[in-house]
Design brief:
Elements (H helix, E strand, L loop, with lengths): L1 H23 L2 E5 L2 E4 H10 L9 H23 L6 H26 L4 H14 L3 E10 L2 H12 L4 H8 L3 H4 L15 H9 L10 E3 L2 E12 L5 H27 L4
Amino acid sequence: MHFLRLASLFVTTSVLTLSLMARAEATVATVNGVAIPQAKMDIVLKTQSQPNQPDTPERRAQIRDTLINQEIIVQEAQKKGLDKKADFMLQVELQKQEALVNVFVQDFLKSKPITDDLVQKEFERIKLAMPDKEFKASHILVDKEDDAKQIIAQIKKGAKFEKLAAEKSKDPGSKIKGGSLDWAPAATYVKPFGEALTSMKKGQLSEVPVKSNFGWHVIRIDDMRTTKVPTLAEAKPQIIQMLERQEIQKMLTELRAKAKVE
């Protein structure tokens, strides 16, 4: 009985060992006698994994084809001795450093997990700092105050704002759109411009030109709206990324302080 148990254990162990060896030596293709290991496929799948890109047979076939093409080119490059050139060796060293940095950062972030509590606190802080309004404005930018005053007078007499913006504004980005600017909070703009926005009403034209370091502005408020605050679920991915970047920067600052850099 003992002999049969030992024999059975030996067979089971042998089968498991052979299975592990087969997995370790598994290949996805062979090019001119050189095997492309399954491990390469697994690494590519892992590093290129995205939520909207599931692991499918079709995707594996694409990656397999890419790995085959790469191996073919590598073999040709090696025949020419390109892998021995100094600039190639330097590129390899740089890529090795980048890969090691990435692995280090991933390992570091595992030790500093971003908790739901941290995300919630940052979300509340961001909400408090968000402006309550956004503005859809148009402007005409000129160099002289008198020119801006003349434009205001022309518009009040019936001249088209958009036509004057296209003809006279020196802001190349907005003049082609009749002076129209994108939706934005007042704080996005230089202070005098932003302050003018918050003091005006929808549809209003600035009574006097607004001076900034860019020149003199004639401003019109086309529309305004309450700022849409994203939900916690919508903001969570960006907040996690931001908090992770902060942790990485803090870690790097501490490491640099300890390092002897000459």
